[in-house]
Inverse folding.
């Protein structure tokens, strides 16, 4: 059975598929790296205009979804490394509180929820007149 990425890739041209792999490679590169390819470099390598690549990335829903799916697959492949790094941060001589917080949140043990309870009271004209009188008296401003 074909994966979600494979089904999406079937709807793309070979150039678009290559563009996705090149964009993923670009995202993993440091901009100062000699191997880093700019958007212009990617477009030139593919034999397309930079604007075409831009349009694929911003206006082509299938391309966008395929890129997102391929990104998720690539990130999933890094999960063991991330787990190892997290384990070192948590199990070290001085455990990282940020790493612990992230782990607890990802496991659903801690939820980042805030509840704001607003209560309002209605004020009638008499309340407002009394408030105005009080403020006028305290500020020395006459209400005429």
């Amino acid at each position: 059975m074909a994966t979600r990425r494979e089904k999406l890739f079937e709807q793309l041209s070979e150039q678009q598929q290559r563009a996705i792999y090149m964009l993923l490679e670009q995202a993993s590169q440091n901009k100062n790296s000699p191997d880093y390819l700019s958007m212009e470099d990617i477009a030139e390598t593919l034999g397309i205009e930079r604007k075409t690549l831009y349009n694929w990335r911003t206006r082509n829903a299938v391309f966008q979804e395929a890129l997102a799916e391929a990104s998720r697959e690539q990130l999933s492949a890094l999960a063991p490394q991330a787990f190892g790094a997290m384990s070192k941060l948590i199990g070290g001589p001085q455990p990282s509180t940020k790493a612990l917080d992230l782990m607890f949140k990802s496991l659903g043990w801690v939820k980042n929820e805030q509840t704001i309870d607003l209560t309002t009271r209605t004020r009638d004209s008499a309340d407002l007149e009394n408030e105005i009188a009080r403020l006028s008296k305290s500020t020395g401003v006459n209400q005429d």
